[in-house]
């Protein structure tokens, strides 16, 4: 089965502690909400310690046009994407030797926080010595589910072409979508939660000699994938696109939907792969937020130990949309206590309302 052999990441340069972003939000929203201190509890209750951003805090205190924000997105997406790709293909934690750029057969680019035509992958391929014949697969609009979906598409490509090496790069600069003049409660929640992050994974087919590159004893093999779209749920999360840019849609019903909908979806997928839920020992979950992780535990009857790595990523980085799942995956791959044959479940939810699942097994 196709195998994930390396994951790299890049953290944008401005690290802000949550205490500082609380002060920023109070100054911004207090005139619109007499009960601002009650609303700001969402910052304190979210279990986020710090986040990374593409610009200093002063930048977000000023108004910026959609054009300016998107041009900034393009420039920084290329700069940060190059660094994450290098980190993935040269990552000494996972690799004995670097994977040559020209051996990458397909480049899957994932994002939801800016737009570019030609797509960002073209600009990165022009900055690094990729083959001009690499297949390009840019994917936009899957939000938090995008990273998992990118891995699933890489799995399918490697199944079709077992000698292939595929890159999945996720660039999410959520802070550049921030709307200074949006006084909605959704914007308050988004301001407390979202952050910038860039991550990249390399997936290879069965006929690639993994031992030539990898130094790991066990690698996560992708056994199967599953996508689910909940009908008539477009208003659960996403963007309203207006003249000033992207305005966040974030429904408070998300934890309730997880509790009522997710477990059956997961158990049916696992049953198709002849695996029961109690055989899953590694839960590689996108940490959409504290309430989302709580809902995972409640729905799946998991202990807090199962979500510990996701919670740590949330605490240190916030929600980086599609990039976050690869941060979580990287920490599982760094773990030295994983044994052969263990099963892991990759889980991410996104606009639609949708769910992306992957079953992996360490081999």
Keywords:
single chain, about 375 residues, alpha/beta, Peroxisomal Thiolase, Chain A, domain 1, 2 domains, five-stranded mixed sheet, 13 strands, about 25% strand
Query: Per DSSP, what share of the residues sits in E-state strands of 2 or more residues?
Result: 25-35%
CATH fold-level assignment of the largest domain? Peroxisomal Thiolase, Chain A, domain 1
The termini sit apart by 10 Å
The number of strands is: 13
Main sheet, how many strands, which sense, barrel? 5 strands, mixed
Mean pLDDT: 93
CATH architecture of the largest domain: 3-Layer(aba) Sandwich
Q: CATH superfamily of the largest domain, please?
A: Thiolase/Chalcone synthase
Helix/strand order, N-terminal first? EEHHHEHHEHEHEHEHEEEHEHHHEE
Put simply, the count of helices is 13
> How would you write the strand order of the largest sheet?
1-7-6-4-5
Radius of gyration: 20 Å
Please identify the structural class as seen in this structure. alpha/beta
Number of domains: 2
- Point out poorly predicted stretches: none
Provide a short characterization of the protein structure.
The protein is of the alpha/beta class.
Plain-language structure description:
There is one protein chain. The chain has 363 residues and is α/β, with parallel strands linked by helices. It has 2 domains: 3-213, Peroxisomal Thiolase, Chain A, domain 1 (3-Layer(aba) Sandwich); 220-362, Thiolase/Chalcone synthase (Peroxisomal Thiolase, Chain A, domain 1), CATH 3.40.47.10. The protein is built from 13 helices and 13 strands. It has helices at residues 18-29, 36-39, 41-45, 57-60, 66-89, 120-127, 146-160, 185-193, 210-213, 254-272, 290-300, 308-317, 324-334, and strands spanning 3-10, 14-17, 50-53, 106-111, 135-140, 165-173, 196-204, 220-229, 237-242, 245-250, 280-285, 343-350, 354-362. A 5-stranded mixed β-sheet has the order 1-7-6-4-5, with helices on both faces. It has a 4-stranded mixed β-sheet with strand order 8-13-12-11, sandwiched between helices. α10 packs across α11 (290-300). The longest helix has 24 residues, at 66-89. The radius of gyration is 20 Å and the shape is globular. The mean pLDDT is 93.
């Amino acid at each position: 089965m196709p195998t994930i052999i390396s994951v790299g990441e890049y953290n944008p340069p401005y690290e802000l502690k949550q205490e500082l972003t609380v002060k920023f939000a109070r100054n911004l929203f207090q005139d619109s909400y007499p009960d601002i201190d009650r609303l700001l509890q969402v910052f304190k209750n979210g279990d986020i310690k710090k986040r990374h951003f593409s610009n200093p805090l002063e930048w977000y205190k000023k108004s910026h046009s959609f054009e300016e924000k998107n041009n900034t997105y393009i420039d920084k997406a290329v700069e940060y994407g190059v660094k994450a790709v290098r980190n993935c293909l040269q990552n000494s934690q996972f690799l004995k030797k670097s994977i040559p750029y020209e051996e990458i057969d397909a480049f899957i680019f994932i994002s939801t926080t800016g737009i570019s035509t030609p797509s960002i992958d073209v600009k990165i391929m022009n900055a690094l010595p990729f083959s001009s014949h690499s297949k390009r697969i840019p994917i936009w609009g899957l939000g938090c589910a995008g990273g998992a979906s990118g891995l699933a598409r890489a799995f399918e490509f490697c199944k079709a072409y077992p000698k292939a090496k595929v890159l999945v790069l996720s660039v999410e600069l959520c802070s550049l979508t921030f709307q200074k003049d949006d006084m909605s409660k959704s914007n308050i929640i988004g301001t407390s939660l979202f952050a910038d992050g860039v991550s990249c994974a390399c997936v290879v087919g069965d006929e690639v000699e993994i031992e030539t590159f990898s130094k790991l004893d066990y690698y996560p093999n992708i056994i199967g994938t599953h996508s689910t779209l909940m009908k008539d749920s477009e208003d659960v999360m996403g963007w309203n696109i207006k003249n000033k840019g992207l305005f966040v849609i974030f429904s408070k019903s998300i934890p309730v939907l997880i509790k009522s909908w997710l477990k059956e979806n997961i158990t049916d997928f696992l049953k198709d792969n002849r695996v029961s839920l109690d055989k899953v020992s590694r839960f590689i979950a996108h940490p959409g937020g504290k309430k989302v992780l709580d809902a995972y535990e409640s729905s799946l009857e998991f202990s807090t130990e199962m979500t510990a790595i996701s919670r740590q990523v949330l605490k240190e980085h916030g929600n980086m949309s599609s990039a976050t799942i690869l941060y979580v995956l990287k920490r599982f791959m760094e773990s030295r206590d994983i044994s052969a044959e263990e099963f892991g479940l990759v889980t991410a939810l996104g606009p639609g309302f949708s769910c992306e699942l992957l079953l992996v097994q360490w081999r």
